[in-house]
Write a structure and sequence with these properties.
single chain, alpha+beta, four-stranded antiparallel sheet, two-stranded antiparallel sheet, globular
Amino acid sequence: MTVCVGRALFLHCSIAGGLAWLGFLAVGSLGEQVKTRIEVAEVEKGTKDVESAQEVMLPSGVKYVEQRVGGGQTPPKGYLVIVDFVGKANGEVFADTRKQGRPIVFLFGGRPLTGGMCAGTEQVLATMKAGSRRKVVSAPVACAQ
């Protein structure tokens, strides 16, 4: 769509039309970047580290300990969620998104059709606010669901 509009403006309105469209796109992109940075600042402002949290056990058997409470909101179903995690099995690391430099991005609440994390981990994410950090222990049964 963008290419079609840009091409039509360029062909019919000369270079000025094409440059005007380019300016429109740049300003729109800049506005989104500013909005995103404001949202990130708000989340960081409300983030608090937790000194001594108790372990919570969900009905599915998944356990977690709150390490940091985020200042954002909990993810509604259908939102894209970005998660950094370290996955361990038998004390051995099998996945570390921070080392890879790429967080996991998935559609929250879309299991099993859209992939994402295991069901037990999604249960924990459902109550996390943006900017939070938790230590999660998920049994293989909770991930097999």
